Amino acid sequence: MSKTILITGGTGFIGSNLCKELIKDENNRIICVDNNYTGTLDNVRELLDNPRFKFIEHDIIEPLNIDEKIDEIYNLACPASPPAYQGDRAIFTTKTCVYGAVNMLELARKHDAKILQSSTSEVYGEPLVHPQVETYRGNVNPNGIRACYDEGKRCAESLFFDYHRIYDLKIKVIRIFNTYGPFMDPNDGRVVSNFICQALGGEDLTIYGDGSQTRSFCYVDDLIDVIIKMMNSEDEFLGPVNTGNPGEFTIKELADLVREKINKDLKVVYKPLPADDPTQRRPDITLAKTKLNWEPKVKLSQGLDMTIEYFDKRLKGKI
Ligand code: UDP
Q1: Residues 293, 241, 296, 120: what is their CA dihedral angle, to the nearest 10 degrees?
Q2: Domain residues of the chain, as ranges?
Q3: Is 124 a catalytic residue?
Q4: 3-state secondary structure (DSSP) of residue 124
Q5: Span 3-180+219-245+282-297: which CATH code?
Q6: pTM assigned to the model
Q7: Atom of ligand 1 nearest to the CA of 81
Q8: Quick check: CB of 206 below 6 Å from ligand 1?
Q9: Which residues of the chain, if any, have pLDDT below 70?
Q10: What is the pairing mode between strands 268-271 and 205-208?
Q11: CA quadruple 234, 236, 237, 238: dihedral sign
Q12: Residue of the nearest CA to atom 16 in ligand 1?
């Protein structure tokens, strides 16, 4: 059966990978919505001539009207890298999370569409429970420099569940942990892109703090797989569900791995740890395994190889 699927944040890192996967099904029409603040049309260039793909430049802070019938909405729009969402952009980030959620939920209501929200591991803040289970309510600083994103995403979850309770809207909520892979922005300041681009450029790798903080890194193909599985899961399963790779690494270990792969002689330099930078992050993915029959397949070393290959081509202007 043919479906029209709207993806907000469709030219961003995860959104562009999702567009490319969903368009493979000839029954799908994709409407890609983005303001291109952190995304870029280059990420979906190969789709622009496809008659089943349409790009709309729009900021979801503003309401969106679409005439054709929409069946599904993936709400991915929001800057996700700390340097992109903080500072002068903080209020814009909160508005993107909150006004954006309201506008997309209203659009879903109008079209009687199913809507999936990309929430985040950031709802757990500085977690006191490790690994993080979905029932853990988190430890977020409500007025720190990350709050615009963390609290924005928490409020969006609240809105999604209220629209479900009040209007019986079909909702799905996933909590995305750190994700990496092709079509990340080389300049977005996240640790995987920073380390790889620094190493490829022969520069020292910048570790913030002492490098003992941990993150769990999921390769983007695994994430796309679970996002689609979640959208297609039984209506009763709303989430929130953790989507991430439970393999946990210190930032120092990640730096060593990247140096080993690209150039062992490069040094690391230590820089101050940003405020409220979480000490540890690892998803408990029991729920995703049982409800969605999903677990990530790509190991960090293998995923890094594919990501290094991508950045190498991109930095040489071959993509
Ligand atoms: N980080 C680092 N060097 C960098 C960029 C980030 O050591 O060049 C650290 C950052 O302080 C954090 C971790 O790596 O502890 C992951 O940062 P990222 O911005 O990728 O994601 P998030 O903090 O949102 O999990």
Answers
A1: 160
A2: 3-180+219-245+282-297
A3: no
A4: helix
A5: 3.40.50.720
A6: 0.98
A7: 19
A8: yes
A9: none
A10: parallel
A11: positive
A12: 191
